[in-house]
Amino acid sequence: MKRFKIIAPPLIFFIACFVGGLGLFFPLQEAVDWGVALLIREGDRRGIEITVRNATAGGGWIPSLTLESIEGRSPLFSARSRGVELRWNPLPLLGGRGAFVLSWEEGGVEAFGKEASWEGGQTQVELTPGTGRFLALELRGELQARGDVTLDLVASRISAADMRLKVPGELDGVLEAAAAFLPLQKESEGQWHLVREEGHDAPQS
User: Fold this and answer.
1) Cβ proximity of 10 and 4 under 8 Å
2) Number of CB atoms found within 10 A of residue 11's CB
3) What sign has the CA pseudo-torsion 45, 11, 147, 106?
4) What pTM was estimated for this model as a whole?
5) Which of 32, 103, 168, 200 is surrounded by the fewest CB atoms within 10 Å?
6) Residue 130: CB partners within 8 Å, gap ≥ 6?
7) What is the C-alpha to C-alpha distance for residues 130 and 42, in angstroms, rounded to an integer?
8) What is the torsion angle, in degrees rounded to the nearest 10, for the CA atoms of residue 45, residue 48, residue 54 and residue 58?
9) Which is nearest to 193 in space by CA: 151, 164, 172, 153?
């Protein structure tokens, strides 16, 4: 759970910066540059070195941003992606779920010297005061995930989750260790269930 507490807040922080920047800056490129600078600063504060090769904004009826070659690195954990896109999702106005769609291209993670890669994925992101929800998350490739997760942004913890994970053998041991801090249940070799019902307290880390 300590890794989660370090890594999750900068991601939420960046999304919040982008959302806030939409109302504070014009054109959108200035909001994106501002958000990336704050993301890097927040990462530094939490011991994560974040690099982004390029960041661009898309205008039109559906605002979006694209980050090229983004990487986050800490002493024990790193994650990288060739590209990440965040775009506004107008479906909530029509009764859909999520305010933004976050998608990413191929990349991978390294934890405690073990590596795994993915081909791509996406999730719907819904932000409310103190809460970040990642809905219908799907990760494809060697590392797979499918489901929903809700983050308590005040306590930096998973407040609810129902997500199936599939990892290669190299990472199975890492998740076995992480199960002491995260609501992870092993179902079989390489098959995991991240599950917590809303309102259930997390174990102390």
Assistant:
1) no
2) 21
3) negative
4) 0.77
5) 200
6) 152, 153, 154
7) 17
8) -70
9) 164
48: left (phi over 0), alpha (psi -120 to 50) or beta: beta
Residue type, 25: F
Closest CA to 103 of 83, 122, 77, 118: 122
Q: How many CB atoms lie within 10 A of CB 8?
A: 20
Q: What is the pLDDT of residues 16-67, one digit of tens each?
A: 555 555 544 456 788 888 889 998 998 898 899 999 999 998 866 677 889 9
**φ, ψ at 24 (rounded to 5°):** -100, -25
Residue whose pair of structure tokens reads 């999520």 in the numeric block? 98
Location of structure tokens 């909530």:
92
C-alpha distance from residue 77 to each of 72, 112, 114 (Å): 8, 7, 9
